Each structure stands twice: as structure tokens, then as C-alpha cells.
Amino acid sequence: MFQASRPNTHLLQGEDKATAEESKEKMEAKLSSLAKTLTPSSIQQLSYLAQRCNAVNLAEGFPDFPAPIHIKDAAVSAILADFNQYSHVQGTCDYVARKTKEMHGMNVDPLTDIVICCGQSEAFAATMFSIIDQGMRLYYLIRHTKRMMFVLGLLEEFLFLMGGGKWQVYVGLDPPQWTLNSDKLEKSFTEKTKALVLNSPHNPTGKVFNKDELEIIAGACQRRDVVAVTDEVYEHITFDNQSHISLASLPGMQRRTVITSSLSKTFSVTGWRIGWAIAPTCIASAVRNIHIRMTDCAPVPFQEAALAALRSPPAYFDRLRRDYESKRDCIFNLLAKVGFKMQFKPQEFVEELIKQAGVVAVPGAGFFHSKPSAYYASTRYIRFAFCKSEDTLAAASLKISRLVDASGNLKLFLTC
């Protein structure tokens, strides 16, 4: 009697694995040169470790407390009213223009000079693609997020493939107060300089560029006929009675400045993706055309909710500043209490902080350019995000305090 032999499952599994590996290698070979350079950010990696260790996450810079009820109600109303299709909500532009006039005294045409985008990130990306061409240089007052670096890297890769050279130049700020060195700025310009990017109020340091520093930057831009692009996402979150001044509000600068900002931080809605660019008409038109081709429109229900957000009374913004100052003082006092003066390798330190204290911070290197001159500064800092609820900050304080030794200093037993 014939009996069929049973297949060698181990052999088949081995063949399947080899086939899968071969298929994976072939697909990876199809990736662009830019995609091959991208890896998970340090914040992503630490957040994964935080989840495994059930740690308090002070690494990611997004609020973990509720958004204002009046704007959530507006979003729900818009969804229930079937605001579901592609649309441009002109009223949002009108209120952005009104706020710009109130804060900075600038007259902006909401019909031609404002573009609503999918967050500040898209506004920034569309602006860069609108103004940078082959052979031009971009000057960046040092600070960047991984998202911004991706945008700039993508543009640089595109221009490089088109025959252009490397074009980003970083102008470092001087610690510990992160002051602008005017000589360093002036020496960085060349005849190829096309644009300068400024982030104020500054992430992650909280620095607000003062009027004297802004006048230095404005003067350099005007003498060199350079476009300025500003990231003003934290425009309503300042500390110690400092006031934010937009570079565009200085004499002669509105016609050569693109402001990018968003609802994200001011209203604790980082996932809603409502941002904007305010620009001279010709640049705004280019940004709008690129935005439409990339994403068509920002989420329409949240565009509608933005109307409610932008109509918020002055008391809302005053309370926001007070709340953030309180959170800043809370984390500052905690770190001072545990003697936060030490020599450490930031990546190793934050990993041990997760494992031993159950609290997540992020190495400061993620906010510096990787060139050698930035190495020393980038290895001296870590960031604690305090845009968190009082409960989260209290939990972090309790967990870190458990590692305080008899002398009152934080003690971590580094294993690496």
C-alpha cells in the first residue's frame, strides 16, 4: 500500500525564510538614496523603550492634557454638519490676518497672502520648495527638529540629483543663553545665500530673540537681499514676561519674510494638522500651488474648529503662558533638587533613566546639526518636555526622586 511521505516542514520553512530574505533585499534595493539614510529618531526609539518600561514620557514634545473644550466642540459640530470634503475655509485666513494685526501691527491680505496647510511642517516644506533652487544656500540659526531636517534633506537630495551642490549652512547660537553672535552670522553669508531660517520662540531652549538680535538679522537679510523664513509655532508660549516679536514686523522685513505657524502647541492639538504660511503674495501663491498638489487641503473639520480657536479671548493666551511657566518651574525645581549637574553621555543616561527611574527624556543631540563644531554642545544636553499635565509631572518627580542618594543628588548606575 502506497503511503505519501510527509513533507519536510523544516526544509520548507528554511526555503520560505530564504525566499523572504531575498525578496526583502530586492525591495530594499528599490529604495531611494534618501530613504536608505532614514532611521527611527532617538525620540521614537526612546518612546518604544518607555512603553516597555511603563515610564513617564517627558521626551516627546506634545501635550498630554486635554485641548480646550470650546475648540473640541467646534470640531465635533463641524463633523456632525458633514464638513467632509475638500475645502478651503477662508474664514481661517481672515482670523489669522486679524491675529497678525493684533500681535504685530502687520496688515496682511487674507485672500492672497495666507495659505492654510497640514501643520507648520507642510507650510515650511512648501516654502522651502518655493524659494530654494540649484546653487543657492540656506542659512539656519541653529535648532532643528527631525521633521525639519527631513524636509531640508529631501530638498537637498532633490537639488543634488538635479546637479546642485550641498547648500545648508548652520549658524550656531552661543550657550548658555543661546545668544546670537553677529560676527558669526555675517561671516556665514556668501553671494549664493538665498534664505535664512529663524525659530523664535526657540525649541527646545525657550529662547525668545530680542529686538536687538532681530535687528541684526533683519539688517543682514536686507543688505544681502535674503528671504527670511520663520518658525513661530511657540508664539504664545514665552516665559518671564518676555514678548515675542516677529521678524516680519521689523521695518522692511514683511516683504521678504515668510511666517510659518500653527494651532498645534497653542491649543494642544498637535494631531489636527492645521498650520499656515504668511508670505508676500508671489511666494504665498507658490506655497499654495505646492500645498494643493501635495495634500489638496488641511482637514476641513479642524479648519472650521480653527475659527473657534483663533477667536479665543486674550485671557486664554495669558492663562496658557502662566500654565507653561508653572510647568517649567516644576521640572526645573525637580532637576535642581536632585543635583542635576553631572558629566554623562546623553543617550546612555536617558536609557538608564527610563530603566531605573521610569522617566523618559531625549538627548539634546537631536536638536543640533551633526557637524563637528556642534558636537561638544550636542553632547552636553538632554531635553525634558514639560508640556504635560500636573499628574504627569508629579509622577515624573516622584519616580526621579526615588533615585536621590543621601547627599541629595541623582544617582544612576550606568551599565554601559
Which key terms come to mind for this protein?
416 residues, Aspartate Aminotransferase, domain 2, aminotransferase, two-stranded parallel ribbon, seven-stranded mixed beta sheet, alpha/beta
- Can you tell me the residue ranges where pLDDT is under 50 for at least 5 consecutive residues? 158-165
Helix content: 40-55%
With helices defined by DSSP (H or I, 4 residues minimum), what is the helix count?
15
Q: What is the residue-averaged pLDDT?
A: 84
Overall SS class: alpha/beta
Which overall shape is indicated by the principal axes computed on the Cα atoms? globular
In total, how many beta strands?
A: 11
Q: Can you tell me the CATH architecture of the largest domain?
A: 3-Layer(aba) Sandwich
Please give the largest β-sheet. 7 strands, mixed
> Given this structure, which CATH class of the largest domain is correct?
Alpha Beta
What proportion strand?
A: 5-15%
The CATH superfamily of the largest domain is identified as Type I PLP-dependent aspartate aminotransferase-like (Major domain)
Lateral arrangement of strands in the main beta sheet: 2-8-7-6-5-3-4
Q: Gyration radius, to the nearest Å?
A: 24 Å
Distance between the termini: 65 Å
Counted up, domains total: 2
Order of helices and strands: HHHEHHEHEHEHEHEEEHHHHEEHEH
Q: What name does CATH use for the topology of the largest domain?
A: Aspartate Aminotransferase, domain 2
